[in-house]
Each structure stands twice: as structure tokens, then as C-alpha cells.
Amino acid sequence: MNQLINTVSSAGYNSEVWIGLYNQINWRWSDGYTGNGAGYRNWKTAANQPDFDSADQFFVSIGSDGQWWDDYSFVKHPFICYRETVRKQVVRLMMKLEDSSVDLNDPAVKADLLKQFQDRLKDNGLSDVTLKWREQPDGKVFHKNQKKN
């Protein structure tokens, strides 16, 4: 929280700013983050926040004291953007098929596998991950291991 306040102060702001938390039934972060720490809140409880004073208070502002309140969408505040560095990582998979008739290089099978991986990552708090297959020069993603004699 101190880092956030220092960042805002060093940019020359000493009033409210938007912090990227918004409400659509439940409070959530605009970058989609749902992992560790995503549930942290620092509401201005002395002012009964969030108070949902009107039907248009769906966004969150932070003041110089570091406390939060729900605010109107039409109010113009500076805002804070944060995005971690995109990191490319290659993962090799070895899969053992129970049904040898399944063609892992079939576009529908590859799409289904990617969706399953994406869903599993999302379940573990990683909702902003892009997955794609790396095709080999022959156009295939998967190759059967050749048994060595």
C-alpha cells in the first residue's frame, strides 16, 4: 500500500485516484487478477465505505491516507495502471494416451486441450495467460516418441 501511495505522490498527485477495483455483483480487479492478495481491501470504514450511496458507485478511489471508497463513474480522477512484464515460457509435454486412435494434431483436439489448460490456470488464479501451440517445421505440434531398441 505504501508503494501505491508513494507512486501516486511522486507523480504529483495528492488527491483521489482510481485504483482499478470495480463492482459487478462482486468487487474485482480490472486486470483480472484473482490470485493471492486479490481480496485485500482497505475501505474507509469511518465513513461506512463502501456505502453504495447511489446506483452509480461501482468504482474505487484511494486518497492520500491510503483508504478506499466507492465512487461515481462520472467523476474524473487520474488512474493507476499496472501490468507485470509479459514473460514467455515454453513448456514441453509428454502425454500418454489411453485411446491410441486420438489424433493430438487434430485442430479440435488441440483447441480442447488448450481450453482445459487455460481453465486449470484460471482456477489457480492465473486468468491473464495466453497459451498457444508451437508448431514444428512439419506443421505438427505433437510427435510420437520412437521406442529405442
From TrEMBL:
Pfam families, sorted: Lectin_C
Name the record gives this protein: C-type lectin domain-containing protein
UniProt xrefs under SUPFAM superfamilies: C-type lectin-like
C-type lectin domain: residues covered: 1-82
Domain of life, per lineage: Eukaryota
InterPro entries, alphabetized: C-type_lectin-like, C-type_lectin-like/link_sf, CTDL_fold
